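Need residues for this backbone.
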């Protein structure tokens, strides 16, 4: 058990702990070090230290996959020290560096995320890798698969304890924004830390709202200032996107909407699908989702119905229908397939940055015609082509990497080197084969017994039976299924991937193999080199930026921070101007004791100043204590005798026993208890109370200067200390109302 109190209480003359020293032990030491994405909108990667336990919050990278990135250099040094990795989103900016960290930097820390992040994150990485030829030299698709096999998947509100002492608790909550997006709550002793990046408090079609304000008042809130200065009315964005699309299509132009592969693209597709159904005439135009991984992402999303919004989930559960079935949206995975779609057409194309992918290929063609239109839904990172267009640039320079066949001296040098490598490989294979001719088995026990039986070293086996093992006749070790008192454990019987996912992956793999047979094989037979080509695109078509990134806007972010009222606040993932704006707001409202706006690689000390006393409770006292639930804690009132245990450490001078300073004190029951006054635990909000009273049949009006007028004769107000005052005549309504107010608290 842990009793916490403020430093002022320790000086009180009536303190219940008279035998304690003047300075009780402090709570955990907490340090945060942003490695990437501190005061910018780039990839997210932050190091959180709880005492000696090191947690990596996200592990992002951008689509360039530059190993010289500063945070990658830091991770090379820190990889062996990391104790756990938490992933909050499935996008490249939150988990892009994970395969490199695990497979090449040899980080063995456990990884935690939700199932949709586990599924969609793999899709994001493979899509990005397929468009970056140079990145295949850094890590491969196989590295991605092996990394994601190690991930521990969690459900929302599931508790997991980390560390050798199991004293660090992590709990994921929904962040909105995309499927499986997570707000992490970390707890150690009396400290609660909330890590909330790219969350959305608004309910959407397939994503429920993030109720971050319902997580209580945390000790520390680590959040972003990405949208601090953006006051766009996100509610009107879908209608505006549809209106602009209709306007262009009816004039004979095409519409390009750059988006991601397995995230915000789903919300876009559902909004446009509804418009195609509801608005007459739109069915005459094409609607396409274009991505190399489009089929896989749609299939994966279909299997995540339990992670979707409640109303959307119930609708499809009742009808037993596929949640990702579209009547008008065509799912394509090749640019050439667009020829079979009726034009003009609206295309949602990967990637979202316009730096690569099908979106860039279409942008190069459509951007040079006035009749077409480009709609941008996310301002994206600085330096991306999307950001350049939003800032007003209309001359876009892009780098395109191509494979060019080797010729002349380059080809001869390549073939010469290839022959030399083949000779070395053959020599190594021959040496390895010679070593395998005899199975070398060392059994020290049998050697000591000096048996006359022939040595295992002399056993010759055919080529197909050669195997290094301590078992000369049966080289295979039988794999035993893990069992429990209920039989074989479920993990041994259930495969890691959903059955439908496996079927889709097999189909995708077969299609990919057919493509490689038709296209890749001739390329592999002819040696090639990667050539960089600079292309300048003159944009003449209209470009519109309509905010639809699925993040809470500036006003909502300020209101949420005000409701949460954290003791300490850390602002990251935003421009310096946005962070400063949000910091000033919190200072003016006196919301936090400490506000930090750190730069990259700056170590921020956000340790709490809570004094703690650890005690043991006697079993008799604990069994007679009634606990009530308050957030994530169980609270009870304890009355007893506070004592230090006596440890047998004889004093050398007088032979008496002394109390060890390291011994944990205990509270024991006493013969008679004085009892205590009723304690009301919790917090009440007038707007929430008004909704409850209306449902109970009361007539409620808000008073201009604050308070609720109930049935015209009772007034409810909250004072500065949040004490509830009920004023009115002593009638039936008064007592009924008082009882309803009591039910909003936990009574101890």
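Answer:
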């Amino acid at each position: 058990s842990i009793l916490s109190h403020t430093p002022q209480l320790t000086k009180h003359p009536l303190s219940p702990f008279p035998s304690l020293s003047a300075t009780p032990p402090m709570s955990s030491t907490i340090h945060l070090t942003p490695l990437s994405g501190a005061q910018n909108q780039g990839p997210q990667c932050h190091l959180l230290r709880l005492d000696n336990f090191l947690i990596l919050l996200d592990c992002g990278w951008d689509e360039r996959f530059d190993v010289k990135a500063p945070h990658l250099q830091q991770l090379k040094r820190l990889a062996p020290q990391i104790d756990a990795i938490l992933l909050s989103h499935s996008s490249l900016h939150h988990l892009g560096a994970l395969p490199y960290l695990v497979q090449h930097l040899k980080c063995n820390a456990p990884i935690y995320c939700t199932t949709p992040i586990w599924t969609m994150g793999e899709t994001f990485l493979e899509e990005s890798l397929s468009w970056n030829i140079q990145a295949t030299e850094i890590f491969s698709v196989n590295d991605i698969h092996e990394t994601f096999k190690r991930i521990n998947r969690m459900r929302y509100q599931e508790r997991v304890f980390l560390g050798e002492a199991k004293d660090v608790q992590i709990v994921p909550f929904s962040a909105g924004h995309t499927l499986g997006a997570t707000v992490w709550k970390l707890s150690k002793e009396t400290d609660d830390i909330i890590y909330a990046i790219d969350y959305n408090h608004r309910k959407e079609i397939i994503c429920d709202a993030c109720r971050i304000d319902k997580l209580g008042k945390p000790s520390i809130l680590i959040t972003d200032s990405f949208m601090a200065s953006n006051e766009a009315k996100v509610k009107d964005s879908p209608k505006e996107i549809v209106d602009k699309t209709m306007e262009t299509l009816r004039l004979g132009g095409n519409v390009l909407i750059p988006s991601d592969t397995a995230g915000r693209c789903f919300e876009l597709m559902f909004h446009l699908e509804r418009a195609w159904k509801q608005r007459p005439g739109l069915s005459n135009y094409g609607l396409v989702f274009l991505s190399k991984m489009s089929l896989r992402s749609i299939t994966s999303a279909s299997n995540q119905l339990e992670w979707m919004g409640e109303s959307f989930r119930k609708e499809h559960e009742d009808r037993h229908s596929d949640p990702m079935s579209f009547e008008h949206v065509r799912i394509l995975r090749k640019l050439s397939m667009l020829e079979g779609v009726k034009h003009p057409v609206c295309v949602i194309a990967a990637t979202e940055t316009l730096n690569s992918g099908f979106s860039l290929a279409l942008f190069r063609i459509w951007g040079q015609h006035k009749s077409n239109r480009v709609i941008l839904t996310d301002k994206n990172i600085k330096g991306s082509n999307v950001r350049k267009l939003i800032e007003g640039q209309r001359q876009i320079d892009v780098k395109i990497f191509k494979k060019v066949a080797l010729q002349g001296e380059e080809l001869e040098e390549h073939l010469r080197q290839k022959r030399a490598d083949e000779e070395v490989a053959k020599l190594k294979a021959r040496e390895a084969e010679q070593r395998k001719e005899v199975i070398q088995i060392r059994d020290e026990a049998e050697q000591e017994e000096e048996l006359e039986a022939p040595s295992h070293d002399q056993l010759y086996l055919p080529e197909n039976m050669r195997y290094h093992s301590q078992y000369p006749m049966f080289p295979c070790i039988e794999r035993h299924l893990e069992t429990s008192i209920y039989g074989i454990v479920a993990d041994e019987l259930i495969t890691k991937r959903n059955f439908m996912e496996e079927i889709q992956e097999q189909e995708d793999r077969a299609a990919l193999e057919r493509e490689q047979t038709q296209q890749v094989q001739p390329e592999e037979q002819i040696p090639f080199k990667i050539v960089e080509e600079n292309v300048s695109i003159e944009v003449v078509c209209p470009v519109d930026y309509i905010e639809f990134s699925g993040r809470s806007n500036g006003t909502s972010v300020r209101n949420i921070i005000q409701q949460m009222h954290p003791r300490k606040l850390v602002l990251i993932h935003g421009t310096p101007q946005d962070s400063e704006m949000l910091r000033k707001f919190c200072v003016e409202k006196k919301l936090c004791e400490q506000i930090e706006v750190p730069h990259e690689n700056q170590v921020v000390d956000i340790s709490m100043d809570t004094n703690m006393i650890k005690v043991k409770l006697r079993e008799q006292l604990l069994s007679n204590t009634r606990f009530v639930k308050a957030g994530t804690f169980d609270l009870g009132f304890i009355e007893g005798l506070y004592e230090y245990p006596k440890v047998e450490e004889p004093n050398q001078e007088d032979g008496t026993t002394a109390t060890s300073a390291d011994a944990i004190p205990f509270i024991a029951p006493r013969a008679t208890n004085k009892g205590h006054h009723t304690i009301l635990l919790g917090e009440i909000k007038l707007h929430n109370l008004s909704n409850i009273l209306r449902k109970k049949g009361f007539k409620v009006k808000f008073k201009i200067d604050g308070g609720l007028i109930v049935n015209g004769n009772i007034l409810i107000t909250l004072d500065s200390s949040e004490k509830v005052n009920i004023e009115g005549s002593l009638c039936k309504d008064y007592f009924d109302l008082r009882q309803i107010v009591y039910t909003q608290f936990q009574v101890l």
